[in-house]
Amino acid sequence: MRLISIVGLLLTGLSTRALAGTDVTWPFSLETSGQDVSWVSTSAVDPAATRYRFEYVITMAEADGLVGGLPVGPIDILGMIPPEQLNDVGYALGPAPVLVWDSGIVAPGPPESPAVTADVRITVDAAGFAHMSMTNVALGTTMIDLGPPFGVVPVTATRIQMSGDVLASAITLSGDLNNDCVVDTADLGQLIAQFGSNNEQGDINDDNVVDTADLGLLIGQFGLSCP
What angle do CA 51, 54, 221 make, to 5 degrees? Predict the structure, then answer.
């Protein structure tokens, strides 16, 4: 499963847990001053699904820091995050439990000095609830344009906050590539277009290649629709 590079982080939740659903949105708001954090979702995605689609979008990112020992912030750092890290999609083979993302984050990326680095791991447990941990968190110093009268200066991060949404979809038919609840020629066309690649959408059996094994799974479900 491809890393969702910046998300993962600290998701705010409600006080009661919801029943498992086919499509679930988990709002998140990360805030850390360098400490490790962990989180468990208050709602669940259907744990019996044959496949899952996960998507995240970061809509806000800001930081507090120090310039020459003086506090500054909050500073809008959304533009420092590469566009491909602001929104991403990944797939995982069901049923739950499943590993969603497991990798490190570095922001901003090379050649800039990072303001934050961490190890991020997100899983969905056997009941469909998401678990996240962000460990080995380190805040650093990077160059930021603070505008007049400061200009571009080194800022040592003391707090990082990000927010947005993680969307989880439970796919009851693994051959339903476009998630419209029916396996048909539209899905077959998508798989053929991705044949030979490692595109996660067409990689039905999650073995990192779109090949005849995936084609066989799709054809075996051809014409089926969601319950």
Answer: 25
Distance between CA atoms of residues 142 and 112, nearest Å: 7
- Parallel, antiparallel or unpaired: strands 23-32 and 129-139: unpaired
Count Cβ atoms within 10 A of the Cβ of residue 29 and give its class: 0-12 exposed, 13-18 middle, 19 or more buried. Answer: middle
Residue 171 phi/psi, 5° resolution? -100, 115
| CA–CA gap between residue 39 and residue 60 (Å, rounded) | 19
Where are the chain's structural domains? 20-171, 175-227
* Three-state secondary-structure class, residue 220: helix
CATH class of 175-227: mainly alpha
Structure confidence by residue, pLDDT tens digits, 139-193: 999 998 888 878 899 999 999 998 888 899 888 888 888 878 889 999 999 999 9
